[in-house]
Amino acid sequence: MSQNRYEMSERQLELIRNQIDRLMKVPNGFYANKFAGLYPLDIKSVEDFRKLPFSDKDDLRKAYPLGLQAVPDEEVVRIHSSSGTTGTPVIIPYTRQDVEDWAIMFKRCYETAGITPLDRLHITPGYGLWTAGIGFQAGCELLGAMAIPMGPGNTDKQIKMMIDLKSTVLCATSSYALLLAEEIAKRGIGDKIHLRKGVIGSERWGEKMRNRIASELGVELYDIYGLTECYGPGIGMSCEHQCGMHYWDDYFYFEIIDPKTGEPAKFGEIGELVITTLTKQGAPLIRYRTHDLTRFIGGDCPCGREYPRIDIILGRTDDMIKVKGVNLFPAHIEEALKEVDGASSEYQVMIDHLNGKDIMTVFVEANPEADKKMVETALKDRIKAKIGITVVPKAVGMGELPRSEKKSTRIFDNRY
Ligand code: ZN
User: Fold this and answer.
1) Which of 13, 171, 294, 333 sits between 20 and 30 A of 375, alpha carbons compared?
2) How many whole angstroms from 286 Cα to the centroid of ligand 1?
3) CATH no. of 320-413
4) 140 CA to middle of ligand 1, Å?
5) pTM of the shown model
6) In the predicted structure, residue 155 carries a pLDDT above the cut 50
7) Domain ranges of the chain
8) Which element (helix H / strand E) includes 133?
């Protein structure tokens, strides 16, 4: 597959143009207001498109409750809402076609994971205002598999139903999948479980957690991507080759940008995912900043699917720091560490500004038997090769670095 698949196609451009024309006619509409003054803007190319401002969760919040609605009342069949734990929620109206499109995409996700009408899907994400549960359910029914609509909580009942109904697919967040896996291991009932696959909402989750869930449950794991502002989960999915996630470019145009400048990231480089919907009716999104970090993955996927791919979610833009002109994410350091013999997964980064220069010191705990000097040399080499930054490596003993709940506190920026 050529890289062209990642560039805006004629068809995508046409859909975007039609969508914007329609949005500009919505009386007091969200985008009619947002793009006011830019028009008449005739979008003839991707360059014209890139002149449009981004939208952000904060903009969407300001439209609460129904300011995003882009169709007449009689066409809205449902709303969903983001969790709103940090303030005003975002309400997303759906038309009948939106609901149907979402189910079609979700069915495609299941098929990408090799799930068939003979499977029994144990659905643990919540039902209700949040999009997850009902999305998993609708796609399952469209596929023709059996939905077991559990929702979250009540571990005893979860396990009983899982055994009695012979659930074959677990749909869950990574933390809930781990909780169930640990409970099943604790009770020693692994042989009564019939699970063969896990469909796990893509958030940043470590390799160790992934391996533990896979081995405790005896399942293959698949990442599913999505966000409430944009249908919900089901807009991208990993296939059996586990090399990123395919996404549905007949429904979305994806951009990956440098989160600091807003300019397109170089192909294959990590940046922030920006989503434009192509056919969404109730509340389309134009250049929506997800704050999720990922990258495009080029080349053909061994599965033969033509849908382009992004990497699994590598972090959030809030975790990003700019050092020596380079955007740096915790995921970068962790990737480099994986290739350093004798280094553990525990690290800490200090960034200081001395004599007009940024100095980045990377502390890492070395395994007791490792030669600290060799760990330091390898660490310096790997980071230079991967990120292009020369760092000061410091190997320390196991348990010498402070433990923290939050990943983001592994990087300390002392420059300002
Ligand atoms: Zn594939």
Assistant:
1) 294
2) 27
3) 3.30.300.30
4) 20
5) 0.88
6) yes
7) 1-317, 320-413
8) helix 132-143
